[in-house]
Every structure is written in C-alpha cells, then in structure tokens.
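Internal tracking record. Fields below are filled automatically when a chain is submitted to the structure queue. Please do not edit lines marked as system-generated. If the sequence contains nonstandard residues, flag them in the REMARKS field before resubmitting.
Queue: standard
Priority: normal
Entity type: single polypeptide chain
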Amino acid sequence: MVLLVDDDEDLVEMFGLLFTRHGISHRRAHTLAEVKALGPDLGDVTTAILDVNLGPHQPSGVDVAVWLRERYAMRIVFITGHAPEHPLVRAASGEHGEVLEKPVPTKLLLEIARGNR
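SYSTEM-GENERATED OUTPUT FOLLOWS
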C-alpha cells in the first residue's frame, strides 16, 4: 500500500486515480494532521510519497516523514518542485529519503508504488 501526501488536491487525486487504475492500494492525505488521523490504516503502507512542502503554516513533508518513521517501517520518497538548494529539499535528501523533482514521470511513479524501484 502507498501513502500519498501533497497539499495539491488535484495532484493527489490524479495520483490516486492512476494507482486505482493500476490496482495499487493507497491512502491519501494533504497535511500531517490528516496523516495522523489515518492512524491504524497506515500499518500496511510500504511506501510513502510525500511532497516536501505542504503549504504555508503547515508542517512539511519532512515533518511527516519524521512522524511516520517514529511509528512505522516504510520507504519514504519525496517529490518537490523546489530547487535542490531549498532548505526543505536539503533536509529531505539527507537521511529522510529519496527526492524526485516534479513532474514525476508516470512510469517511475508506478515503479516506486509497486516496489520495483
């Protein structure tokens, strides 16, 4: 199962439709609070795909990764439209996970979701 977390509702919807079409189960959220609300539903998640920046006045994707890692064993993959020099991108690319630039190619996204990359 895949967890998608991005503040862009359209992007989360598009990724969700893609995963559904390809038979990949997933959960969706837009904020850390929504991730926390999923609670027990996260036990089967093997990969989390997190936007680095979840919007102004919100905890970042890095914060979500820290929260997840304290509770679950899963792969963390970040997606971002920010430059590599951005402080959040640098934090994400450190010890927290792999960082991919938006737009992420569909084939790559499906490979990650299936655990083939």
